[in-house]
UniProtKB/TrEMBL annotation:
This is HTH psq-type domain-containing protein. Residues 25-71 form the HTH psq-type domain. GO terms for molecular function: DNA binding. Pfam families: HTH_psq. InterPro entries: Homeodomain-like_sf, HTH_Psq. It comes from the Eukaryota.
Length: 97
């Protein structure tokens, strides 16, 4: 699924909102903030707001992840009824039906 966002360079740039792509962009944004040098106040030079704009992700979600909050999937991993391998096999079996 693609979403059109306001991009200063091109107002019709499609941005994927696939969860795997979004998670990758979140991880990249957190890494970019952590790798940016600290300013005189001890804060990263790349702000959460700036990183959210660059990586086209939610500022609040980025802030949560930067501060250690887990994704919904990871936070509820222990509550799953099936192991990921079993779930994947079941999905494939259903697709064949």
């Amino acid at each position: 699924m693609d979403l059109h966002v306001n991009n200063p360079q091109d107002s019709t740039t499609p941005v994927s909102i696939d969860s795997a792509d979004y998670e990758q962009r979140l991880s990249s944004a957190v890494a970019a903030i952590r790798l940016s040098r600290l300013n005189s106040k001890g804060q990263p030079n790349l702000s959460i707001r700036e990183a959210a704009k660059v990586f086209l992700i939610s500022k609040s979600t980025l802030s949560d992840r930067y501060n250690g909050k887990l994704s919904r999937r990871d936070a509820h991993k222990n509550e799953q009824k099936l192991r990921p391998e079993a779930e994947k096999a079941l999905v494939e079996w259903i697709k064949v039906m």
